[in-house]
Design a protein that fits this description.
Elements: H1 3-31, H2 38-55, E1 58-64, E2 77-80, H3 89-94, E3 100-105, H4 114-121, E4 123-125, H5 130-145, E5 149-152, H6 172-180, E6 184-190, H7 192-195, E7 206-216, H8 222-240
Parallel strand pairs: 1-7, 2-5, 2-6, 3-4, 3-5
Antiparallel strand pairs: 6-7
Pfam family, one: Acyltransferase
InterPro entries: Plipid/glycerol_acylTrfase
Transmembrane segments: 12-32, 44-62
Protein backbone atom coordinates (compact mmCIF):
# COMPACT_ATOMS: atom_id res chain seq x y z
CA UNK A 1 0.00 0.00 0.00
CA UNK A 2 1.11 3.58 -0.55
CA UNK A 3 2.08 5.71 2.45
CA UNK A 4 -1.19 7.69 2.33
CA UNK A 5 -3.24 4.50 2.25
CA UNK A 6 -1.20 3.12 5.14
CA UNK A 7 -1.99 6.14 7.28
CA UNK A 8 -5.68 5.87 6.39
CA UNK A 9 -5.54 2.17 7.26
CA UNK A 10 -4.04 2.97 10.65
CA UNK A 11 -6.65 5.68 11.20
CA UNK A 12 -9.28 2.99 10.61
CA UNK A 13 -7.61 1.02 13.43
CA UNK A 14 -8.34 3.85 15.87
CA UNK A 15 -11.97 4.10 14.75
CA UNK A 16 -12.40 0.32 14.99
CA UNK A 17 -10.76 0.16 18.43
CA UNK A 18 -12.85 3.06 19.73
CA UNK A 19 -16.18 1.60 18.56
CA UNK A 20 -15.42 -1.95 19.72
CA UNK A 21 -14.11 -0.76 23.08
CA UNK A 22 -17.19 1.36 23.74
CA UNK A 23 -19.66 -1.33 22.66
CA UNK A 24 -17.93 -4.30 24.31
CA UNK A 25 -15.78 -2.65 26.97
CA UNK A 26 -18.63 -1.43 29.15
CA UNK A 27 -20.22 -4.88 29.66
CA UNK A 28 -16.76 -6.42 30.13
CA UNK A 29 -15.97 -3.81 32.79
CA UNK A 30 -19.25 -4.51 34.62
CA UNK A 31 -18.79 -8.29 34.45
CA UNK A 32 -15.21 -8.00 35.71
CA UNK A 33 -16.37 -7.02 39.20
CA UNK A 34 -17.53 -10.60 39.79
CA UNK A 35 -14.78 -13.18 39.25
CA UNK A 36 -17.36 -15.86 38.46
CA UNK A 37 -18.53 -13.82 35.48
CA UNK A 38 -15.16 -13.62 33.77
CA UNK A 39 -16.00 -16.52 31.45
CA UNK A 40 -18.83 -14.38 30.08
CA UNK A 41 -16.60 -11.32 29.86
CA UNK A 42 -14.06 -13.44 27.99
CA UNK A 43 -16.58 -14.21 25.25
CA UNK A 44 -16.92 -10.46 24.69
CA UNK A 45 -13.15 -10.00 24.80
CA UNK A 46 -12.82 -12.62 22.07
CA UNK A 47 -15.36 -10.76 19.94
CA UNK A 48 -13.27 -7.61 20.43
CA UNK A 49 -10.14 -9.50 19.29
CA UNK A 50 -11.93 -10.98 16.28
CA UNK A 51 -13.21 -7.53 15.34
CA UNK A 52 -9.79 -5.91 15.63
CA UNK A 53 -7.88 -8.66 13.82
CA UNK A 54 -10.23 -9.41 10.95
CA UNK A 55 -11.48 -5.81 10.81
CA UNK A 56 -7.96 -4.75 9.82
CA UNK A 57 -8.00 -7.17 6.91
CA UNK A 58 -5.87 -9.79 8.63
CA UNK A 59 -6.50 -13.52 8.73
CA UNK A 60 -4.49 -16.52 9.90
CA UNK A 61 -3.55 -20.08 9.03
CA UNK A 62 -2.98 -22.47 11.94
CA UNK A 63 -0.23 -25.02 11.34
CA UNK A 64 0.31 -27.80 13.89
CA UNK A 65 3.92 -28.89 14.37
CA UNK A 66 2.99 -31.25 17.20
CA UNK A 67 0.51 -34.06 17.79
CA UNK A 68 -0.17 -32.77 21.30
CA UNK A 69 -3.62 -31.37 21.98
CA UNK A 70 -4.82 -28.54 24.20
CA UNK A 71 -6.77 -30.00 27.13
CA UNK A 72 -9.78 -27.84 27.93
CA UNK A 73 -9.60 -28.96 31.56
CA UNK A 74 -6.07 -27.65 32.20
CA UNK A 75 -4.71 -24.15 32.67
CA UNK A 76 -1.78 -23.13 30.49
CA UNK A 77 0.91 -20.53 30.27
CA UNK A 78 0.64 -19.40 26.64
CA UNK A 79 3.73 -17.90 25.00
CA UNK A 80 4.80 -16.70 21.55
CA UNK A 81 7.20 -14.33 19.87
CA UNK A 82 6.12 -10.68 19.88
CA UNK A 83 6.52 -8.41 16.84
CA UNK A 84 3.28 -6.41 16.54
CA UNK A 85 0.33 -5.14 18.56
CA UNK A 86 -1.77 -7.61 16.57
CA UNK A 87 0.07 -10.49 18.27
CA UNK A 88 -2.10 -9.69 21.27
CA UNK A 89 -5.34 -10.63 19.48
CA UNK A 90 -4.29 -14.10 18.36
CA UNK A 91 -4.17 -16.01 21.67
CA UNK A 92 -7.79 -15.04 22.44
CA UNK A 93 -8.84 -16.13 18.97
CA UNK A 94 -6.97 -19.44 19.32
CA UNK A 95 -8.28 -20.30 22.82
CA UNK A 96 -12.09 -20.35 22.87
CA UNK A 97 -12.33 -22.71 25.87
CA UNK A 98 -9.64 -21.22 28.11
CA UNK A 99 -10.37 -17.77 29.54
CA UNK A 100 -7.07 -15.95 29.15
CA UNK A 101 -5.50 -13.36 31.40
CA UNK A 102 -2.67 -11.31 29.93
CA UNK A 103 0.39 -10.01 31.73
CA UNK A 104 0.88 -6.55 30.28
CA UNK A 105 2.77 -3.35 30.90
CA UNK A 106 1.30 -0.82 33.29
CA UNK A 107 1.68 2.04 30.78
CA UNK A 108 -1.35 0.84 28.80
CA UNK A 109 -3.61 1.95 31.64
CA UNK A 110 -3.11 5.52 30.39
CA UNK A 111 -5.05 4.83 27.17
CA UNK A 112 -8.47 6.48 27.52
CA UNK A 113 -11.42 4.08 28.00
CA UNK A 114 -9.33 1.02 27.03
CA UNK A 115 -7.09 1.49 30.07
CA UNK A 116 -10.06 1.41 32.44
CA UNK A 117 -11.10 -2.01 31.15
CA UNK A 118 -7.51 -3.22 30.79
CA UNK A 119 -6.63 -2.79 34.46
CA UNK A 120 -9.71 -4.81 35.48
CA UNK A 121 -8.94 -7.90 33.39
CA UNK A 122 -5.14 -8.05 33.10
CA UNK A 123 -2.21 -8.50 35.44
CA UNK A 124 -0.26 -5.29 35.11
CA UNK A 125 3.46 -5.05 35.67
CA UNK A 126 5.69 -2.03 36.12
CA UNK A 127 8.92 -3.27 34.53
CA UNK A 128 10.91 -0.61 36.37
CA UNK A 129 9.76 -1.92 39.76
CA UNK A 130 11.32 -5.09 41.21
CA UNK A 131 8.40 -5.34 43.65
CA UNK A 132 5.87 -5.19 40.83
CA UNK A 133 7.72 -7.83 38.81
CA UNK A 134 7.92 -10.14 41.83
CA UNK A 135 4.23 -9.68 42.63
CA UNK A 136 3.23 -10.85 39.14
CA UNK A 137 3.66 -14.48 40.22
CA UNK A 138 1.21 -14.12 43.08
CA UNK A 139 -1.38 -12.32 40.98
CA UNK A 140 -1.04 -14.83 38.12
CA UNK A 141 -1.45 -17.68 40.60
CA UNK A 142 -4.70 -16.10 41.79
CA UNK A 143 -5.93 -15.83 38.20
CA UNK A 144 -5.08 -19.47 37.54
CA UNK A 145 -6.88 -20.58 40.69
CA UNK A 146 -9.95 -18.85 39.25
CA UNK A 147 -9.66 -21.10 36.19
CA UNK A 148 -7.81 -18.75 33.83
CA UNK A 149 -4.80 -19.45 31.67
CA UNK A 150 -2.02 -16.86 31.42
CA UNK A 151 -0.58 -15.20 28.31
CA UNK A 152 2.99 -13.92 28.45
CA UNK A 153 5.28 -12.68 25.71
CA UNK A 154 8.66 -13.82 27.08
CA UNK A 155 10.63 -11.24 25.09
CA UNK A 156 9.05 -8.69 27.43
CA UNK A 157 8.07 -6.38 24.58
CA UNK A 158 8.80 -5.67 20.95
CA UNK A 159 12.50 -4.89 20.33
CA UNK A 160 13.24 -1.36 19.10
CA UNK A 161 15.82 -2.86 16.75
CA UNK A 162 13.71 -4.32 13.93
CA UNK A 163 16.65 -6.46 12.76
CA UNK A 164 16.29 -8.63 15.88
CA UNK A 165 14.42 -11.77 14.86
CA UNK A 166 13.88 -13.05 18.40
CA UNK A 167 14.92 -11.16 21.49
CA UNK A 168 16.27 -12.75 24.67
CA UNK A 169 13.56 -14.37 26.82
CA UNK A 170 12.77 -13.19 30.33
CA UNK A 171 12.27 -15.75 33.11
CA UNK A 172 8.67 -14.96 34.10
CA UNK A 173 6.65 -17.45 32.02
CA UNK A 174 8.96 -20.33 32.86
CA UNK A 175 9.18 -19.59 36.57
CA UNK A 176 5.39 -19.36 36.65
CA UNK A 177 5.07 -22.72 34.91
CA UNK A 178 7.45 -24.39 37.34
CA UNK A 179 5.98 -22.80 40.46
CA UNK A 180 2.38 -23.62 39.62
CA UNK A 181 2.84 -26.86 37.69
CA UNK A 182 1.27 -25.47 34.52
CA UNK A 183 2.22 -26.61 31.01
CA UNK A 184 3.46 -24.08 28.48
CA UNK A 185 1.72 -23.83 25.10
CA UNK A 186 4.29 -22.58 22.59
CA UNK A 187 3.29 -20.69 19.44
CA UNK A 188 5.19 -18.87 16.71
CA UNK A 189 3.58 -16.03 14.75
CA UNK A 190 5.07 -15.30 11.34
CA UNK A 191 4.10 -12.41 9.10
CA UNK A 192 2.83 -9.73 11.46
CA UNK A 193 6.22 -8.06 11.71
CA UNK A 194 5.84 -7.10 8.03
CA UNK A 195 2.03 -6.86 7.83
CA UNK A 196 1.46 -4.73 10.91
CA UNK A 197 4.71 -3.16 12.15
CA UNK A 198 4.90 -0.26 14.59
CA UNK A 199 5.86 2.04 11.72
CA UNK A 200 2.50 3.58 10.76
CA UNK A 201 3.66 4.22 7.21
CA UNK A 202 4.16 0.51 6.52
CA UNK A 203 2.11 -2.66 6.51
CA UNK A 204 -0.62 -4.39 4.55
CA UNK A 205 -3.55 -6.77 5.07
CA UNK A 206 -2.71 -10.45 4.67
CA UNK A 207 -2.58 -13.95 6.10
CA UNK A 208 -0.51 -14.65 9.21
CA UNK A 209 1.04 -18.06 9.75
CA UNK A 210 0.42 -19.38 13.27
CA UNK A 211 2.55 -22.37 14.22
CA UNK A 212 1.50 -24.42 17.22
CA UNK A 213 4.91 -25.72 18.24
CA UNK A 214 4.60 -27.75 21.37
CA UNK A 215 3.27 -28.16 24.89
CA UNK A 216 6.11 -28.13 27.40
CA UNK A 217 5.37 -29.87 30.65
CA UNK A 218 6.52 -28.05 33.80
CA UNK A 219 9.85 -29.04 35.33
CA UNK A 220 11.95 -28.01 38.31
CA UNK A 221 14.25 -26.11 35.97
CA UNK A 222 12.74 -22.89 34.56
CA UNK A 223 16.08 -22.27 32.82
CA UNK A 224 15.74 -25.48 30.80
CA UNK A 225 12.15 -24.63 29.91
CA UNK A 226 13.21 -21.17 28.75
CA UNK A 227 16.00 -22.56 26.58
CA UNK A 228 13.73 -25.20 25.04
CA UNK A 229 11.00 -22.65 24.22
CA UNK A 230 13.50 -20.14 22.81
CA UNK A 231 15.18 -22.69 20.55
CA UNK A 232 11.81 -24.03 19.37
CA UNK A 233 10.51 -20.61 18.31
CA UNK A 234 13.87 -19.56 16.87
CA UNK A 235 14.01 -22.73 14.73
CA UNK A 236 10.46 -22.16 13.47
CA UNK A 237 11.26 -18.57 12.51
CA UNK A 238 14.41 -19.68 10.69
CA UNK A 239 12.67 -22.44 8.75
CA UNK A 240 9.40 -20.73 7.85
CA UNK A 241 10.02 -16.96 7.64
Amino acid sequence: MTTILNYLWRFWLFILAFVLTIVLGIPVYILSFNKKNYRYAYKLIRIWCYGMFFGMGLRYELINLTDKKIDKNRQYVVISNHTSIMDIMLPCILFPNHPLCYVGKKELVKIPIFGTVYKRICVMVDRKSARSRADVYRRCAEKMEEGNSIVLFPEGGVPNDTSIVLDEFKDGAFTLSSKHNSPIAVFTFIGLKEMFPFDNSKGYPGKVKVFFNDILEPTDSPKDLKLSAFETIKKTLAEHS
